[in-house]
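Subject line: Sequence and fold of a protein, written as structure tokens
Enclosed: The protein record, placed directly beneath this head.
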Amino acid sequence: MNHAEFIGLVTAYPLTYCVSLMAMLAVYIILFRKQVHAFFDPLFFVAVFTAFAASDVVFLWWLNVIDMQYFLQFIATEAAFFLGLALFRPAKDRDPVKIGGNGQKHSLVVWHGGERHLLIVLYILSASVFAMTQAITYIALGIPILYESRLKYYSVGGGIGALDRILSVTWFITFYLLLYCFAARVRIPRVFHAVVGVALVTSALLSGSKSTFTAMLFATFYFRFLRRDSAHGSFDKALAKWQKVLFVSAIIASILVLSVATVTTGPVALIGSLAIRFASFGDVYFMAYPHHVVEMVPDGHEFLAVFGNILAPFRIVSHENVPEPLGFMLHRIVFGFDDSTGPNARHNVFGLVYFGQVGSVLFSLLLGMLVGAIRNLLPAFVRTGSAVEPLYAFLAISCVWATTDVNLFTKDCVSVILVAPALYAVAAVVCVAAAGKGTRYPHERLLLE
């Protein structure tokens, strides 16, 4: 079943679809309410988007378009994922971990140490690398938003994929440390901050990726959340207002990006594109479950399907041995041609293809445990103002989207492994060299007190 056929069903049975959607929204919000830390928590958005996707499954099952076995498999895997997530007590309910014997709380770690200097240098370095890499990308390939597909933009070879990894990591670190510099009043010329801010926003607008705007929102959330026990200063209040502005701006920018992308592919009606976008929340389900299409997808190579994207960049396995993205294969079966695109392989369908009915439930359980550990267990060991904080926030945001496509999360993990060590090593060398020469760093004063 393709998008047009699914939209046709929704048009024919609008009340049934609306009831399915309302029911799933209620179920997911109730289930995730204790796991979600706040409205701007990325998990809240994942829960809402997953409810939209789940409503497609319920809708199709109610109309007898999909078999009972797929409906039960979907319920079992969703329950398994939530169970794995719920095994770890939410981080917001945990007491801050004490460090040393002075009774200081983890969230009130002293900002006056070597890591402070490292973060300042890292901010300047990351911003510089980001700007140079983005300029090289624009010169080599042009503007991403003018391309029909972001995947096609970075799939031309010649090392362009590596530039994408550098951009994703340096963009996030730069934005996160920009917040740090404002919070700590680092005495770097304001014109530098202004140039960095304009570069980050411009890159987001021209990227054609709506997720870049939400990344700003989620980065701001984690910056505040990790300081939740000391978040009563003027800067935290300013960030709270900033989050609301970002939320509205992300909605407007997403519509703008979609409008521009629609115009560049021809004078297609924007309403039609919006309808397809809404349907795409659960496109993997209506493409895979009806007519047993999921059973037509080549299986095997289970290990490489999960870990191939981690091993291939290090040449441990050949890229040719890594299975083709599941979404691409579904697109080929449904539409009959290759287009380097396809639906995100949600964990339910991914597990069913590579691990079978029973194995998919275990896969979803382990995935839920991984997300739960990163979200709820690791924050206790992440000190605010530490060198590891930006990397944790990056992975904490990325991990919740593993339910949408596990390969997106593994890609982010590899990007961190490939890019972050080099950035941190260069920043550390600069710090050591500066210390040897007695260089003074910009003075900082904590505002979150």
